[in-house]
Write a structure and sequence with these properties.
Blueprint (H helix, E strand, L loop, with lengths): L1 H21 L3 H9 L9 H32 L4 H17 L6 H6 L4
Helix pairs in contact: 1-2, 1-4, 3-4
């Protein structure tokens, strides 16, 4: 059951890996492919580390959103759909950092 609870975190990390791969930053792409395996380590610091990574990932999605919107505005292209898609992905990534507040995950990772 913990696998299902942690699925949003894994999806967020994999989406960030794909994002960095598309951006041509293979080292970040590889790191974000490795981060889901950190979930197998039952340590409190892992949870804090992944929360920070997910918050940084959320900020990256927001930065990307502003970048692409400005690009589209300069070219006179529509950007509403882009705002919706990247905005939802940013929100999903940010909310996935709250997954570790779940009672069973707190017990699993020994979080006080």
């Amino acid at each position: 059951m913990n696998f299902i609870r942690l699925l949003p975190v894994m999806i967020s990390l994999l989406l960030l890996s794909a994002h960095f791969s598309r951006a041509g930053i293979p080292i970040f792409s590889l790191l974000f492919l490795i981060f889901p395996f950190f979930l197998l380590i039952k340590k409190q610091w892992i949870v804090k580390f992944l929360r920070v990574i997910l918050i940084i990932g959320t900020l990256e999605w927001i930065r990307t959103l502003f970048y692409y919107v400005s690009q589209r505005q300069e070219q006179g292209e529509p950007y509403f759909r882009l705002v919706i898609i990247i905005g939802v992905v940013a929100l999903f990534t940010g909310l996935s950092s709250l997954i570790f507040r779940n009672k069973r995950l707190k017990e699993f990772y020994n979080i006080q």
